[in-house]
User: What shape does this take?
Amino acid sequence: MRALACLIVVATILPGPVSLATSARAESSVSVRVIVNAKNPVARLERRFVADAFLKKRTRWDDDSAIQPVDLGQRSSERAEFSHEVLDRDVSSVRRYWAQQVFSGRGVPPPEVSNDADVVRWVAEHPGGIGYVAAGTGLNGVKTVEIE
Amino acid sequence: MLALVASTPASADDALPDENAVQIHAFVSQGALLTTDNNYLAYTERGSLDFTEAGINFTKQLDDKLTVGTQLFAQDLGPNGSYRVNFDWLFLDYHWRDWLGLRAGRVKLPFGIYNETQDVDAAQPVVLLPQSVYPEADRQFLLAQNGLDLYGYLPIGRAGSLEYEAYFGTLYFSLPTQLGVQFAPVDVPYIGGGRLMWETPVDGLRAGASAFHGTLDINAILSGFPEPITIDLTETQWLASVEYANEGFLLDAEYGRIRDHTTETSLGSEHPTAEHGYALAGYRWRPWLMTTLYYSLMYPRVGDHNGVANQQHDAALSFRFDITAHWIVKLEAHFMRGTAALDSSLNNNVPLSDLTNQWVLFAAKTTAYF
Assistant: This one.
């Protein structure tokens, strides 16, 4: 127990970030852009709508077509930033949310791809696709939307 | 083709993931329990490893509105479970609109913040959820129902959104033999209930209420009684919930009451009302470390808080270590006062009033999941 207590004390008094999101922000200054399929008529979206889409609480665009979100891998700095700024949760909390959903039969998480280029490919190939990429990523077949 | 949906994103050279593939997720947990006095949930005074869970689920999206899925679950916890494999959930889900969907089959019961995920260690900050509200010993009773489940999610502008669920069906379960009482399979004519949660405009803050009503017919043979007895139980529960989960913070509080109306053929009638509640605070210090404190209390009879057997207080401190994205370890200590949550049959049939009032429970658990 003394070793455990020492471990906890060391972990809690160390200076620095307290969450994965802030940790990632400290390591990277990437600015995340939310993208949708180029044929999607939306030009701007409310932050809460995007959060609901990635948590699969909302599954339909206004024209009743399916929303098809795609995520980056859990170690991605863009994902940490997106989780912090749009979902208002750190990646660990999002993982716990999906464990709750998956093992209670309430839903499955969005598919994950490994890099920005694959996010663009996914969104371009899915009419209802929505994803996020770092600024400066080539946007072939997709477009950025403004987040309000 | 089966696709594992663990965190293994497609590499640049891979084809993009197929969102229509069968998704498979699974978990395996092993826990340990040790008490300074009294046996709790298992034979814990000597230390017990009878605390094992495993589950695997399969989900297939047939089209953008129709999903089928099932989860197989096996558990060992003291006298309960014994690794018998059950269908934890099994349903067809028609998601007609975001504001209205229908599940038919065996569906997890929405009750409070944690009921649907009680048996999912990876989803919880602690080893043992506050036992006053989510008792491990009753998990087969209130975990899932067979019937219909209507659910929806409705944004309400600047006021946030509403998440709601209502169900009607029945339960299939058996009670273990204890204290010289042998139970026949429980007949449940019906149960019904629902949950309404309001997601407030404050990010991470939600509040709501759950209700449950059902009738159970229990037939039992008691040693010393010449005839089997029949117990008709009507139970009504409600639970108020509030949660704040934002960045690393997790704050939960729940309070509720359980009203039973019990009629026994030879023992007469009872109408006890129990109350239970807890407050929980957790903080994720690091991606790999979360600490949680909670205080949980339960009174089996609202009007009688006297005597060790009429109260259960539980102050818990828990540490969750996320070793990797798929492996967690939890350690916790519970400082207990009262004996209302104990089971005489695990304690040499000693009456609850004669068991040790103040005792400590240590729990450890490790889970791998994907």
Helices of chain A lie at 2-13, 20-27, 47-54, 77-87, 91-103, 116-125. Chain A has a mean pLDDT of 83. The longest helix of chain A spans residues 91-103.
